[in-house]
Design brief:
Elements: H1 4-30, E1 34-35, E2 47-48, H2 52-69, H3 81-103, H4 107-123, E3 130-132, E4 139-141, H5 146-164, H6 170-188, H7 192-212, H8 221-238, H9 250-255, H10 257-272, H11 285-291, H12 296-320
Helix pairs in contact: 1-2, 1-7, 2-3, 2-7, 2-8, 3-4, 3-8, 4-5, 5-8, 5-10, 6-7, 6-8, 6-12, 7-8
């Protein structure tokens, strides 16, 4: 099938997110769901949260719309079990994030929320059943280990994106870039449903960026950063982890390289310094770049460029391994 339905999904999700975000912003202000300055925060004035509501809504509405209309002509992009799993589990996690933005939940409750959403996702059959042996052509079937490995992947990427949401537009931009590359790779590998989900997620992030780039008028909040990370993890399980190639295991690591590296570095540093792993600080890559003299916008654009380079490398590997 042609790429026009995927391009249409991208455009529609951009438009929906663009139209919904101002409404969500007014709602957050009315309910006083604000991110106030102080601590490790960079901004100097209260900014409304909950922007992720627009991202989730744009993603979901686009999938439903395209699958209903386009699915009449192309059965491969009809709303399937995996799409429903991501929509439902994503709604659960987004709701937990929405509450956290308003009332600040404990770290333990957030972990429990991610675990619950992951269990729901696995209930729809979205699970890492195997990985490819990087030193051979055979598949390594995970069997009973499939469930903990799946949860660890979902948790790692969900929290990694949450941790990257420290500068205006940073997490949304990373989400747009990563899901954009996922869409291209899935289309190239003849995975139309995966490409559709990734295109819708990328467009949702792009539409939201109009109001989130420096100076931000609204923040994603936990509802947005965790949903984007969760959706990326889920879509990659449905797509990238099912590519039976010797390089398959390296592809997700490259596509999500920046948030993964940042999370590993920060957690390791806190562990070595015997500080609580969940305690926020200013050791993230964007904080370090700011201390080196880069401006807010320069830091964000620099990290986006890193994501483009890593994503482009992953795409080149995929295209060279037919």
């Amino acid at each position: 099938m042609g790429a026009h339905w995927h391009l249409l999904a991208f455009v529609i999700s951009v438009v929906i997110a663009y139209l919904l975000t101002p409404w969500v912003r007014r709602l957050a202000i009315a309910l006083n769901v604000m991110d106030k300055p102080g601590g490790r925060r960079i901004h100097t004035r209260p900014i409304p949260r909950w922007g992720g509501i627009a991202v989730y809504a744009a993603f979901t509405l686009t999938l439903i719309l395209i699958s209903k209309i386009g699915g009449r002509f192309y059965p491969d992009i009809r709303l399937n079990t995996e799409m429903m799993g991501i929509i439902i589990a994503g709604a659960l996690l987004a709701t937990i994030g929405l509450i956290d933005d308003a009332k600040e939940m404990s770290a333990a409750l957030q972990v429990l929320g991610i675990l619950t959403a992951a269990v729901v996702l696995m209930g729809f059959g979205i699970c890492i059943q195997f990985v490819t042996n990087p030193f051979g052509e055979e598949l390594i079937w995970l069997k009973w280990a499939a469930y903990p490995v799946t949860f660890l992947w979902i948790f790692a990427l969900t929290k990694s994106m949450d941790l990257m949401d420290g500068l205006d537009g940073l997490a949304a931009g990373i989400g747009a870039i990563a899901s954009g590359f996922l869409a291209i790779m899935a289309y190239y590998k003849a995975q139309p449903a995966v490409a559709l989900m990734a295109a819708a997620l990328s467009g949702s992030c792009v539409g939201f960026l109009r109001f989130n780039f420096n100076p931000a008028k609204i923040f994603m909040g936990t509802v947005g950063s965790q949903f984007v990370g969760f959706a990326l993890a889920a879509i990659s399980i449905v797509g990238l982890f099912k590519v039976a190639a010797a390089v398959a295991i390296a592809i997700p690591v490259l596509v999500f390289g920046v948030p993964i590296f940042d999370a590993v570095f920060v957690v390791w540093r806190r562990f070595v310094e015997r500080r609580p792993i969940h305690m926020a600080d200013k050791s993230h890559i964007h904080h370090r770049l700011l201390r080196r003299g880069l401006s807010h916008k320069e830091t964000v654009i620099f990290i986006w460029a890193m994501c483009f380079i890593l994503g482009g490398t992953a795409l080149a590997i995929i295209m060279s391994n037919r």
